[in-house]
Design brief:
Belongs to the KHG/KDPG aldolase family. The strands form three sheets. The chain has a four-stranded parallel beta sheet. The protein is built from nine helices and nine strands. The longest helix has 12 residues. The protein starts with 18 loop residues before the first strand and ends in a 10-residue tail after the last helix. The protein has 220 residues and is α/β, with parallel strands linked by helices. Helix content is 36%, strand content 15%. α3 runs parallel beside α4.
Length: 220
């Protein structure tokens, strides 16, 4: 099977960019220009959440028109959604949580996936099932950097994309952690800019996000 990611050097969604934009598309007409702005700003991995009726069509449009984008589906919570997202062209899957049935479907899809966790027991359960890359959600509410730092010692094999309550002010604190590959956030796609179709502003915010590093200037 051909890898859905662009190259062997970026074999994981966590390694494509320091930030994965979490995008809610209300109007499918916005999908392609929005994706082009994010890619031009240096953020190729784009998570389109299944929170609107336009989401699947947005994934199809981006997949067809913006080949440089690595578009994924977020808020995936059922096996049926896994099937429809893959058919729409999604190249990775993200869930806010997981069940055995959902995990089985995501694994069977052949796509990279990030199941959501917020407790140590959930992390251990996924490691037991051979899953080492996860979404930590809701990051700030679930303990933030202090929680993730505490997990790094006993569970160093787990890697995370924290999402939820993260912005340009605290993203470097997360990116500095040894068990964080990237963070997810939506600050580079503010609703007023999308409503005004100010794609230049989105690109500018994306470029700033793509340059974020861990506290102290480190980027793994």
């Amino acid at each position: 099977m051909t890898s859905p990611l662009p190259s062997a050097s970026a074999a994981s969604v966590l390694d494509l960019a320091p930030v994965v934009p979490v995008v809610v598309v209300a109007d499918v007409a916005d999908a392609v220009p929005l994706a082009r702005a994010l890619v031009a700003g240096g953020l190729p991995a784009i998570e389109v959440t299944l929170r609107t009726p336009a989401a699947l069509d947005a994934i199809r449009e981006i997949t067809g028109a913006v080949p440089e984008a690595v578009v994924g589906a977020g808020t995936v919570i059922t096996p049926d959604q896994v099937t429809t997202c893959r058919a729409a062209g999604a190249r990775f899957l993200v869930s806010p949580g997981w069940t055995d049935a959902l995990l089985t479907a995501m694994r069977a899809s052949g796509l990279p996936f990030l199941p959501g966790v917020s407790t140590t027991s959930e992390v251990v359960a996924l490691l037991e099932r051979g899953v080492r890359e996860m979404k930590f959600f809701p990051a700030q509410a679930a303990g933030g950097t202090a929680y993730l730092r505490s997990l790094a010692g006993p569970l160093p094999q787990a890697r995370f994309c924290p999402t939820g309550g993260i912005g340009p002010g605290n993203a470097p604190e997360y990116l500095a952690l040894p068990n964080v590959g990237c963070v997810g956030g939506s600050w580079m796609v503010p609703s007023d800019a999308v409503a005004a179709r100010d794609w230049a502003r989105v690109e500018e915010l994306a470029r700033a996000a793509s340059r974020l590093t861990g506290a102290g200037g480190t980027r793994r």
